[in-house]
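Go through this:
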Amino acid sequence: MIAEWISGAAARQGGAPYLEDAAGTGTLTYAGLRSSTRAWADRLDRAGIPPGARVAVRLPDPLSYATALVSILGAGRVVIPLDPGPPAAELSRVLAAARPQAAVGESDDGLPPGLAVLRPPDRSSGPNGPGSSPAAERAIIPAGASRTGGIFLCTSGTTGAPSVLSRFEEATGLPVIETYGMTEAASMITANPLDGPRKAGSAGRPVGTQVRVARLAAGRYVPCPARTVGRVQIRGRGVISEYAENGPAGAVDPEGWLDTGDLGHLDQDGYLFLAGRSDDVINRGGEKIYPREIEDVLLAQPGVRSAAVVAAYDEVLGERPVAYVVPTEPWPRELEDALRAACAAALPRPKRPSAFCLVRDLPLGPTGKVARRRLRELAAGRHSRTSLRWGRAKRC
């Protein structure tokens, strides 16, 4: 289908630019894209990389990267986009999950031994330039490889800390448009309108994707009433049909709804409000606590640069919330008292953190998001029954 789209566009507007380098160093026309797609299909066929095989792309030049990605996708292979300069551990993680049969890159650095590596065509020779490593011609393709093309995307599976929208707008005078997306939906799911009503704290309305909030009833998910928190589920042409190996089973139901793992509610106007990740919910004696509502209170206080709330073990109630706070200055005096007072004023008693841990920084994952799993491990170790001093800030 994509190859047909490319051919049709080339027939209608062959000489028009399809891609242009922002630096002004190169342009790819629709006709050039069609030629590139055909050339890549021929190169992959000759290298023994069949339709449906996975091909990783790692190129530093944006125009070459985009050209290779679209061309290989149009040639019926599954493209695995790679960060041109990822940490070694992150590259290994992605490659272990994706298991490509070939790669396109300027070097073999960090790639598994024996992996077929195709060199990108020289910019000076046009999109149909030659070049491949000897290993590419000796590639061995595993039996049973998929015969359909597509894009294989790796997601970090985490949620970023709440948007600093108010502070940014006050400091710069520039409006911020809140959106919501995920790798599994080709990024965009909802967005606040550019020229319509924006609702503070909302991720906006659906953009090209169906969105519902559902709860489990009699063994199946049914839509929740407006303003009722449930599991955020999505469906549409831009949403994945399934996860690859080792992905969560049953994430996409027979009707095509993908469970995002996020919690939230829809208001009467169809605006989505996120409450957090389902695996981050704190169960305090049966009371479900969403970390975000506590974090929003903490982040609104002077002297707080960032904050995250996770569950700590409680012998009686099962779990209780513990707050990790990064202050704007080294160990400000009376910050804990101010935070405790703010939480008491804004939150019911079960949702108030049982302890505040002042830290220099929050642990981050490879994508720069808060590593909540690491915080939960810290909470389990530092806030055990024997080590926690109730009512006192911990300076970790």
